[in-house]
C-alpha cells in the first residue's frame, strides 16, 4: 500500500440502543455526535468533513436524500462537505471507511463518521419490508426457492409481516452450518446466553437481562432452528466517531488515540459454493494491510444478526478453524479471560441492531476496549481489536462486507 497518512480514532460516542417512540433520527444523531466530539476534545468547527450513515429512514420516516443534513442541522457542523452513505447493514462501517480514506489521502485532518437509525414504527410490517429490500428484488423467487428446504415457508411474498425474512435466510444458512460443524440448537442458545451476559454489563445495550440456555430454547420460534432470543431485535440508536490524522492528534495531545490499522470493504459477488466468501476475502486483505494475523486479535465485534453468525464469522475470520466454532465456543476462548473475546458489547443479539448505526457502534466498543474503559466487561490487556460488519445478500454472499482492525 502506498505511504499514506496514519489515521486515529480520537473520540467516540453512542446512544443507548432501544425502542424510542418519542425520538427520531435527529435526536439520536445529535446525542451520539455531541458525545464523540466531547470525547475527542474538539468543537463542531474543527470537523472538516462528515460521512453520515442511514439505511432505511426513507422507507420508515419518508425522509429521503438529505438525511445527514437534516439530522445534523442543529449540531453546528453543517457548512463542511457532508456525504450521505447507505450500504445495507454495513452502512455505518462504509461511512467510517470513507471518513478514514479522506484523512489517509491527506485531504483532511479531522472527519466525523455518524450512523443513525430509526427502525421502530407502529406498523411492524413496514419495518420488516424495509429490511427486506437488502436483496436483489429481481431475483426474489430464486432466493425463496433456496430457502424452502426448511420446515416453514419463508415469508417473502406478502411483505414478511410477522418477521424479517432475513431470519429465514439466516435459518437456511444455519441448517447448512449444522451439517458441517455438528452445531445444535443448544450451541446457538449458548451464544445467546454469552451475548446477554455481556449485554447485562453494557449500559448502552438494548437488553440488560441475563438468560439461560433453557429460556433461549423455549422462546418463540422465528425460523427453525432459530428462536427469538437467537435473533437481533428491532431498535433505534446512533453512534459516532471522530477520526484524526496522527500528526493532528499528537498536536492536540490526545492521550489515548487508537490507530486504524486496516479498513477494508468489498462488495459481494456471485460465487460458487466452494469459492471464498466475501468475509474470507476481506479478512485476508485486512490482515495483510494491518500486518497482523488472527492470532493477534484480542477482542472482536462481529455481525451476529443471528446467533450462528457469530461462530461462522469467527471461522471465516480465521479466529478458529472451519467447522470448529462450536468447540471454540465451548472452550471459553470467546468469553472474558479467553484468547479472543467476541462481542463483549453484547453483540447485535443483546446490544441491538439499528441497521444504519451498527458498524460504528461496533467500533465504539473496540475503541473503548483498547482504551481500557469498559468496566466489568473489560478485556484485560487488549491491544488489537477487530470489527466485522456485513450487509444485505447477493446470491451466496453478503452484498457488502467490512473488516476494520485497530490497535493502541
Please describe what this structure looks like:
This protein has 408 residues and is an alpha/beta fold. Helices cover 36% and strands 19% of the residues. It has 15 helices and 12 strands. Strands 3-2-4-7-1-8-12-11-9-10 form a 10-stranded mixed β-sheet. It has a two-stranded antiparallel ribbon with strand order 5-6. A hairpin with a 2-residue loop joins β5 and β6. α4 crosses α15 and α8 packs across α12. The radius of gyration is 20 Å and the shape is globular. About 3% of the residues have low confidence.
Helix and strand layout, with pairings?
Elements: E1 7-14, H1 25-40, E2 49-53, H2 57-60, H3 67-71, E3 82-85, H4 91-104, E4 110-117, H5 124-131, H6 140-147, H7 166-181, H8 185-199, H9 213-218, E5 221-223, E6 226-227, E7 237-245, H10 246-252, E8 258-267, H11 278-290, E9 299-301, H12 307-316, H13 325-330, E10 341-342, H14 347-350, H15 358-370, E11 384-394, E12 397-407
Parallel strand pairs: 2-3, 2-4, 9-10, 9-11
Antiparallel strand pairs: 1-7, 1-8, 4-7, 5-6, 8-12, 11-12
Helix content: 25-40%
Distance between the termini: 21 Å
H-E order: EHEHHEHEHHHHHEEEHEHEHHEHHEE
Reading side by side through the largest sheet, how are the strands ordered? 3-2-4-7-1-8-12-11-9-10
Weakly predicted, low-confidence segments: 150-160
Number of E strands: 12
* Overall pLDDT: 93
